Amino acid sequence: MEQRRGRRLVLIPLPLQGHINPMLQLAHILHSNGFSITVIHTTFNSPNPSNYPNFNFYSIQDGLSETEYTSDLLNFIIALNIGCVTPFKECLMKMLSDTSEEPIACMISDAMCYFTQSVADSIKLPRIVLRTGGVSSFVAFSAFPFLREKAYLPIQESKLEEPVAELPPLRVKDLPMFNTKEPEKYYELICRFVKETKNSLGVIFNSFEDLESSALKTLSQQFPFPIFPIGPFHKHFPEDSTSSSLSSLISQDQSCISWLDKHKPNSVVYMSFGSLAAITENEFLEIAWGLSNSKIPFLWVVRPGSICGTEWLEALPSGFMENLEGRGHIVKWAPQQEVLAHQAVGAFWTHNGWNSTLESICAGVPMICMPCFTDQKVNARYVTHVWKVGLQLEKGVERKEIEKSIRKLMEENDEGKKIRDRALKLKEDAMLCLKPSGSSCCSLEGLVNYILSL
Ligand code: UDX
C-alpha cells in the first residue's frame, strides 16, 4: 500500500449506514488531497475493503452481545462506546509500534464514537471529529443542558406546538428527541457526545456555509476549535467514482432506474425512510392508500423489518399492487443518489436523515417530510421553514393528508411551484460551494493545512 509521508490518517466510522456513507466519502476527499487512509471498523456492519483498494482496513471486535446488537439504537450506541475502548486502543498501539509504517498524523472519529477521545488522550494522538448530521441539529443537541434548565425538556405533550424562542424556528416538537423509556440515558448520551466533540481539536461537517450559516456562526461562538463545513461530500467527485453503492450494507435494487426510465420528468414520488426508522402496520397501510388515492406514480423503498411486526409486504391488501397497473414500484433498498438524480423523480418523501436531506437538496428535489427521531425533526423544520423546499406531514400519517401533500407538491399550483423553484435554486448554491473559490473548497483547504500543522 502506498504511504504518503506525514499524511497518514486513521478514520473511525460509527457502524450504521447513515454514518458509514459520509465517513467513506470523507476518506475519498482526503485521499484525493494527498493523505493515506486507514479505517478502523467493527466486525458488525463492516464495510467491504475490496471496494476500496486505496485504503487500509483494520477490523476490531466490539465485544457486544447478541442482545446488545438487537437492542434499541440508544442502548446499542452506549454499548458500542464501552465495548470498543480496549480493542480500539490495542489496535492503535499495534499500528503505532510498527516502525515500518508512517506515523499517524491524526484520527478522525465519528462524533458518536465518543470513546475515541480518551484513547486519543492516553496515547497523545490528535483527534478531529466528523459530525455526520447537520450543523443546526448539532446546535440543538449542544443546547440540551439549557433546554432542560428552561423546562423545554422533558417534552410536555401540552407544549408541543410552542416555539423554542432561543432556537428559532424550532418548536418544542422539533427538538431532537428519541422515543425511549430511558430519557435520562438519552440526555447523558447526547451530553457525552457533545462534550467529547468539544474536547476534540476540530469538527468537520457534511454541510456548507450558505446552507447553515447562522448555525455555523452560533457554533463558532460556543466552541473553542476550528469548524470545517466541507460538504456536500458526495458531490466532490463524479457520481460513479464514490457511489454510495460501494458503502451500502444492503444491495441496491437497480430495477428502480429502468422503472423510472419509463416515466415522464417530475412525475414520480420517491419514498424512503433510511436505514433505521420503522413504522407501524397501520401507518404502512395509510401510506399505501394515500399513495394509491393520489394517482401519482411512486417508487417506494420498504426495508425488510421496517414495518413493526411484519417481515416485508405481507400487510398490503391482496391485489393492491395489481390494481395500481404499474403505477407503483416497491423495492427493499434503492440506489438512492441515482434515483434522486433521475429526471422522473419529482418529490422525495423522506424521514429527513441528514444524508437523505442533503442528497435531496443537491438533486434539487423538493421533500415531503416525515421525521421520526433525533436530528430528523430539526432537519425537517429547516427544510420546511428555513430553506422552504418541502412540506411536513403535520397530522400524523393519515391517507387524506398524504394524498393532499403529494398533490400539492406534484401538481400545478402556486405553492408547489414556489417550493420546486426554491429547491432548484438551493441545488445551484450547493454546487457553487464546491467551485474552486467556493466556501466548501476553501474550508477543505483549511482542513488540509490544519491537519498538516498538528
Ligand atoms: C441515521 C439517522 O437516522 C439520521 O437521522 C442521521 O442524520 C444519520 O444517521 P439513516 O436513518 O439511515 O441515518 O438516514 P440517512 O442519514 O438519510 O442515511 C441513509 C443513507 O442510505 C443515505 O446515504 C442514502 O443514500 C442511503 N440509502 C437510503 C440507500 O442507499 N438506499 C435506500 O434505499 C435508502
TrEMBL record:
UniProt KW keywords: Transferase
Domain of life (superkingdom): Eukaryota
Keyword match Lyase: no
Xref: InterPro entries: UDP_glucos_trans
GO molecular function, one term: quercetin 7-O-glucosyltransferase activity
A Pfam family: UDPGT
Similarity section: Belongs to the UDP-glycosyltransferase family.
Protein's name according to its UniProt entry: Glycosyltransferase
Organism the protein comes from: Lupinus angustifolius
